[in-house]
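Hi P.,

Sorry for the delay on this. The queue was packed all week, but I finally got your sequence through. Input first:
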Amino acid sequence: MKKILTLSVLPFLFSVSILHAQISKGSLFLGGNISGSTVKTESTQPNVTSKQNGLTISPVIGFAVKENLVFGADASYSFFKTDQVYGQYTQKQYSYGAGVFLRKYKPIGKGFYLFLQGRLGGRYDENKYTPGVSANNTKRFTTTFGGYPGVSYAINRKLQLETGFNNLLSLNYYHETGKNLDGSGYSYKSNGFNIATSLDNLSSLYIGFRLLIGK
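Then the structure:
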């Protein structure tokens, strides 16, 4: 039997200024999210029962360099820990990322905006296992260029609600190194390039808020 408990997915953003029909040049753009989860899997089969805890933090800041055009930067940190009960091992996953983005808004009336965002970023991922298990400790650096469309809505004079598909289309290049922990001394290096889309992944659809402090 498999049990999954999601503790929270909490986008946090607040507004302190008036939203106008246009996003004026010089406006400060703030955003981000914080999320945490717990996943527990139970089974009568060995090496299956496990528990995973995770945390992700992603702040965003930007400025309207022109009317309805925002240039900004973002950062991210994620940590996941998995304890395999019967297999008696622990897996820890770390992720650090940062990037820059350009977002163009198009007002369509009645408080609605269409937007298109492009982003260039990098991410470092590290995967660690308890020593002695037959698994690979890995380190990976990924460079990504991606973009996606979205819709935002001025809930009131102080908040914008938005939704979109993260990385609807992205180009990725990665470099990975790994070392096996079973005592064999096996290690490897890998490089790869891919083009990806999130059309078949509903988890890439998000809902969040954005804060605009008008100049």
